[in-house]
Amino acid sequence: MSRTFRGGLVVLGVLSVVDLAGPLATDGEHPPMEIALIGAALGLLSLILVVLAWRGKRRAVVPLIALRVLSAVTALPAFFVGDVPAIAVLLAGVLVALTALGVALVLVPARQLAGAR
Question: Which residue in 2, 44, 50, 80 could disulfide with 13, CB within 3.0 to 4.6 Å?
């Protein structure tokens, strides 16, 4: 397992843990409790898949990516719904950017990295 792949798993794992804490961090409106609970469920499933991928189960990577992208999609309304606090919009942007980074790191083939050195 390459360092890049492990780094991607770490980023996706941290995002999963953040999702788990969502229901405790919400005021019920930003994000709505329903979205926070969906995020927590996605976070729990993602965390299980991160552990499996870390242990070498390559079949866990595709569902992990799908769940993390779905989690990022749940943050997108923050950019379009009015009356969302600026900090919530900022955090949604960070979540989407870190998701993209984690997915990219997990998808970079190890052979490409070896040739780049």
Answer: 50
Burial class (CB in 10 A: 0-12, 13-18, 19+), 87: exposed
Triad 109, 110, 111: Cα angle to 5°? 90
Q: Answer whether 63's CB lies under 8 Å from 49's CB.
A: yes
User: What does the alpha-carbon distance between residue 76 and residue 95 come to, in Å, rounded to a whole number?
Assistant: 10
| Model confidence, pTM | 0.84
| Pair of tokens at residue 85 | 């606090």
HEC assignment per residue over the chain: CCHHHHHHHHHHHHHHHHHHCHHHHCCEECCEHHHHHHHHHHHHHHHHHHHHHHCCCHHHHHHHHHHHHHHHHHHCHHHHCCCCCHHHHHHHHHHHHHHHHHHHHHHCCHHHHHHHC
The letter for the amino acid at 49 is L
For 32, phi and psi rounded to 5 degrees?
-60, 150
